[in-house]
Amino acid sequence: MHRRIIAPGALAAASVLLAIPASAASYTPGAPGIGDPYYPYYGNGGYDVSHYDLRLQYQPKTDELQGTATILAKTTQDLSRFDLDFLLDVSEVRVNGTQAAFATSGEHELVVTPKTPLPKGTPVTIVVRYSGVPSAKSAYGFTSWHRTPDGGVAANEPEAAWWWFPSNDHPTDKATYDVSVSVPDGTQAISNGTLQSTSSRLGWTRYNWRQNKPQATYLATLALGRFDITTGTSDGGVPVINAYSKDLGDNEGAARASVERTGEIVDWLSGYFGPYPFSSAGGYVPNTTTSYALETQTRVFYSPRQFANGANTSLVVHELAHQWYGDYVSVRGWKDIWVNEGFARYAQWLWSEHEGEGTAQELADYVYASHPADDAFWTIAPGDPGPDNQFAGAVYDRGALAIQALRNEIGDDAFFAVLKGWPKEHAYGNASVADFQRYAERVSGKPLAALFDTWLFQPEKPAAPSARALVKTTTTVAQPKSWKKIEATNSVHEH
């Protein structure tokens, strides 16, 4: 795991501090972190973003990126200065049309001091001009920019934005996006949402993408390279855009056989989770050396290695389930990761039922029996796993066990009402594990605190009766036919 948090140094030089007029003594700097205990310096305080407009130019031969980011926000306090999360080289910052002082701080902070302090509730337009080579930048010892033979890709969790645009990088500050990218003719630029237009001039082609629904910063993605792009519409009317690197080699057939089923799977998931919440769906498979997949909103990132052993629709189900559980409704804090990963894994169990390869109960029995009481698997609490275990297998498998325990406790009618109603309850917003518990109690009419505590928070193997139908520890359980396909997706959390 690469989650090493290093406290940034002083947030601005003395000269920057002196830029604040005496009359603004009551104004204070925005915090350098949004307040998430897992990642104290991710995100920022003092403002809330509503829209990112990114106008970029990229040269694949050198991995050079130039950009102008226009950020629309509103202050949430009387603000003397504020931070943006960013790594590339900045040449100019303007706040409400006026040049602002700026400096770098810590591992990934851009500190901006407006010429005039900003009262609480002020609409703010921030313009940042920048350039750099994303693959040459790192923070906390890692990079989330993946260089490919024909370009580059930004995709990672919980952070990816720093390498290509300045942002307030935390899921609680969602925004809409316009991403316009100019690349040499023959290279394509892929991002979230829908492709609004393309135009060519003097050997360069510009791609204009729009995400018209709120999106967390880590779910914004950019892929630059040579792709074969397919388009279509699902039976349910959802536009589908998929893309495949032109040099996937032996993995190409399996990748296409999996990802081209996106429309079918989106429609199927809609039956459990409600109407698809975005303007398009799809995925892309660039020629990266990574081994994970990521639920980048509307345009899922898949590593070629995920298809090295053949097609795997279960993986596609997992990432598309996140469009509801993770993207439509995002975590309130990173400790709430179970609300994303437990349900995406459980969707794979439902797909197994659909395919006749093992019921959710049979998969729960198998997982439960496969881990003896002294297995470290049970020491990880999916409801608050800690930053070092945020993407541990137990968050996925023990997390799905908790969902099956809930299903057994409240019955199928209430359970499937919860599955479908929850995304609508917090549409385009954020929610926590505690919020989910309260919602399940309201829908089912049952107290569920003990069940949630047992399956999500206790660092020990629950007694089988807590989940009613779950088998005893000593029982030998046959491996469901779908298990190997599900297990093959475990690397989705190896960010």
From TrEMBL:
Residues 50-219 form the Aminopeptidase N-like N-terminal domain. Pfam families: Peptidase_M1, Peptidase_M1_N. GO terms for molecular function: aminopeptidase activity. The keyword Membrane does not apply. Its cofactor is Zn(2+). Residues 310-455 form the Peptidase M1 membrane alanine aminopeptidase domain. This is Aminopeptidase N. It comes from Streptomyces eurythermus.
